[in-house]
Design a protein that fits this description.
19-stranded parallel beta sheet; about 675 residues; elongated; mainly beta; 58 strands; Immunoglobulin-like
Length: about 675
């Protein structure tokens, strides 16, 4: 039914159950009326029309309206709409009882409806209610409710509705009214209101009327001086504090001003929850998410090198705007948890997101999830994450030309799909990655489904366990070039799929130009398959005599960095970043059964490193940063057999991931520690 202006007492409201703007209270209202079919129309709370369509709806509705328009109400109700002192939309209702009210369980209902379009001219976008206690003639009351203002709403297309209704019996509506903004009214909205420094806030004028306002004057720090003269300013708060915000608008010689006291809070502690934007700095300490985080559409969050982000309480880190977490020019960014978190998730954002040189662990769904978004995933360590129906390390859905390169993906587990990378309708470039020692019930390393056609070049894929092998392929056409794939079982479980494989080393062999079946002779691979063996401590470079050296595609475009013919595996072609210390001088490196460990871990600033020697030996105990640079020697000399303990004081070092290396005549052992200041 169209919004018939001739029906002066008609207040239409549409509760949407889905679409772009599903209405709050949809389930509550549906349960109230026992909705049994769609569309379901209620009149005065207790008369309904279910179904219908086409030209029959209007005649049915107008007939119902005509039956009710002359009913006598026991209330007089005046409704107003304005802004509260906190910048929220405020619905106010002044009520007087004119006839004794006999119904019980009465409530006053507050609604904001939005004229989105002519097809959705009265969509409910705000809904709340509270008890209404007036019952006797002559009683009066003033009621109000504040709704958070959404900057995407057009203020001129909003209408406030208040109604008194019984929630028992026939749910009759005793009275209702509606109102819109009038006059010149200053209104303030922003993308967020609180967070750690440097906090980037996009202010919006949500003033009335929508057009015709000639001037905007903003004081965003409460110092009494106007900082901006534009309609929607952008401001970065660097110093912790609580800030008042004032907006003064002018039109045709008239002015209106609003001040929101304490509107912006920049916290001293780096504790984050809710909407985030701006810049996170390494020198402010660990950023702790105590709940879900979201970078909203249109917002930007930059995480500087060396920053540690700990996400707790099952938090999701959702990006719908833009995230730049690129630490390639400095120390690694750490993203992890002391309890659990669901992962870093990108949804419906085609801005250029970057996740680079980050250590990501402990996620329980997918460490990095990218859906219909642009996000390059470069030179990260993605390890010890878990999942079920998603790729434990990386999940891709409906992605095109994104780049996944230089990542070490190890020791991730999945009870369902894959421990490594999963994609559906994906077309990424996947090159120079090490995907090792992941375990899943379906596919150990890759799940490639539903029309996906990724190009995999120079990847090292080893020691992954899955019931269906290293790769699960379903209705997809992947291409592998210059890769090393070694699996305990089958390489491919292919359903309606034919992989193209050339110049690659595959255990068990595979048809295709330039393919070989040989031991790659890794310098120090893990001793077994699956996530129980630590792929982070291994050395996946090719040893002397490996048949994978100079065996890749001979085309010049694939040449290694030194100009020679391409080597198969992750270190060929463009090379692979050095995440951990590797010692290529030893002919053979045998892990030491030393029970090397550190506690506490994470630590600040001291940790105790304990280890056991089965026999007396000349040893060295050294600390390396994430780039493989030696930064400290803790022990260098002869030690007797038995248990030993050394305290490392890392006061002078920055937060981040470090590796403890124990070297003795028996070989080398590594332990990863995390310094959190």
């Amino acid at each position: 039914m169209e919004n018939d202006a001739s029906a002066e007492f008609y207040i239409p409201l549409i509760w949407q159950g889905d679409g772009s703007w599903p209405s709050p209270g949809y389930s509550t209202r549906g349960s109230l009326y026992g909705v049994g079919g769609i569309p379901h129309a209620q009149w005065n709370g207790f008369q309904q029309i279910v179904g219908g369509g086409g030209t029959t709806m209007y005649s049915s509705y107008i007939n119902m309206y005509n039956q009710l328009v002359d009913d006598i109400s026991p209330l007089e109700l005046q409704v107003g709409l304005g802004f509260s002192s906190t910048g929220d939309l405020q619905v106010q209702a002044n009520v007087e009882v004119t006839e004794d009210i006999t119904t019980t369980n009465n409530k006053i209902v507050y609604i904001i409806k939005w004229h989105q379009s002519d097809g959705y001219f009265c969509t409910v976008v705000g809904y709340a209610f509270e008890d209404f206690s007036l019952t006797s003639v002559g009683e009066t009351g003033t009621y109000s409710y504040d709704f958070p203002m959404n900057a995407s709403w057009d203020i001129e297309d909003l209408t406030a509705v208040a109604m008194v209704q019984t929630y028992s019996g026939n749910h009759a509506i005793l009275q209702a009214g509606q109102a819109q903004l009038t006059g010149l009214v200053a209104g303030i909205a922003s993308n967020l209101q609180t967070g750690p420094p440097s906090l980037a806030v996009q202010f919006s004028s949500v003033s009335y009327p929508l057009t015709g306002i000639e001037s905007w004057e903003w004081d965003v720090d409460g110092d009494g001086e106007y900082d901006y003269m534009e309609e929607n300013p952008y401001h970065v708060y660097s110093e912790p504090g609580i800030y008042d915000v004032t907006l003064r608008i002018g039109m045709e010689g008239e002015y209106n001003e609003v001040t929101l006291e304490g509107y912006i809070t920049v916290t001293e502690e780096t504790i984050a929850e809710g909407f985030v934007s701006g810049t996170w700095h390494a020198d402010l300490g660990i950023y702790t998410a105590i709940g879900d985080l979201q970078v909203k559409s249109g917002d930007l969050l930059v995480i500087e090198p060396g920053t540690t982000v700990m996400l707790e309480n099952g938090a999701e880190f959702l990006v719908k705007g833009q995230l730049i977490a690129d630490a390639r020019e400095g120390e690694m960014i750490i993203m992890g948890s002391e309890s659990d978190w669901t992962g870093l998730h990108f949804e419906d954002t085609m801005t250029e997101n970057i996740v680079a040189w980050c250590d990501i662990s402990g996620a329980t769904e997918s460490a990095i999830y990218v859906e219909n978004s642009d996000c390059d995933i470069l030179e990260n360590v993605i390890h010890h994450n878990s999942g079920s129906q998603l790729g434990a390390a990386i999940e891709l859905l409906d992605v095109m030309d994104i780049e996944i390169a230089g990542n070490l993906i190890s020791n991730n587990t999945s009870t369902g799909l894959t421990g490594g990378i999963s994609m559906t309708n994906g077309f990424p470039s996947v090159h120079n990655n090490i995907v090792v020692n992941n375990t899943a019930n379906t596919a150990g390393a890759f799940s490639i489904k539903q029309g996906s056609a990724p190009v995999l070049v120079n990847n090292t894929i080893f020691g992954n366990i899955g019931v269906n092998g290293a790769f699960l392929l379903f209705n997809s056409q992947p291409s592998l070039v210059n890769c090393i794939v070694q699996s305990e079982g089958s390489i491919f479980a292919a359903i309606a799929s034919t992989p193209t494989v050339t110049y690659s080393c595959l255990s068990g062999g595979y048809t295709g130009e330039g393919n070989i079946d040989a031991d790659p002779l890794f310098l120090m691979p893990t001793e077994g398959y699956g996530a129980e063996y630590d792929g982070l401590r291994a050395d996946w470079t090719l040893g002397e005599g490996s048949l994978c050296i100079d065996a890749g595609n001979p085309a010049a475009g694939y040449n290694d960095l030194d100009g020679s013919q391409n080597d198969m595996g992750a270190f060929g072609w463009t090379g692979f970043p050095e995440f951990v210390f590797t010692d290529n001088d030893e002919d053979e490196l045998i892990p030491v059964n030393s029970n090397l460990r550190a506690y506490p871990n994470p630590f600040n600033p001291q940790t105790s490193i304990v280890y056991a020697l089965t026999e007396s030996a000349d040893i060295s105990l050294e600390v390396y940063n994430i780039k493989g640079e030696q930064i400290e020697t803790l022990v260098n000399g002869w030690q007797s057999a038995g248990d030993h303990q050394v305290v490392w004081n890392a006061e002078k070092f920055a937060s981040g991931v470090y590796f403890i290396r124990l070297t003795s005549g028996a070989g080398n052992s590594f332990s990863k520690v995390i310094l959190m200041k």
